[in-house]
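Re: the request from the purification team.
They wanted to know what the chain is likely to look like in 3D before they choose a buffer screen. I agreed to run a prediction and write the result into the notebook, where they can find it.
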Amino acid sequence: MRDILMPSGDGDLRLYRYFRESGDHLHLVEVYGSDNLQFDVYEMEKDHSGWFVKYQVDLNPVAAAFPEMVRGYADPIDLHSYAFSILCVVHEETDEDSFMVLHLPNKARRYNFKDNSFRKLHDFAPLRSRVGVGGDSSLEFEYFDAYQFIESFACV
């Protein structure tokens, strides 16, 4: 066991949005500030000596296409101004094929790192508010709720 140095930031509020492994690569996403839709996806060096920027992400076009991402209220529990979570970063054989799965309110979208495009994976039925008042739930899932499919001969 040893300490892992975190990427150095610019002093803003650091919000960790994702920390997980894919294809034997450890990824970290931290967003600086609560209203920032541009961030880096870091990858751990093979020798575990530190982090490097693997992908640069700009979700402004996603927010423009899905205005329901913008929160019109201040949530004291969730400091994020935009309703999205990163379900997984998928490391493929080539960087051109690697992508990220985003969860937006009632939607799952695939975000391509190479050209910043996004496409539909699934639309979820809106949830009713838990307090009996109508409305959609902002987000149901976080990255710790999602698991990558791995082909296997084992019965699960």
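For the purification team: The longest strand covers residues 14-22.
Please add any questions underneath this entry.
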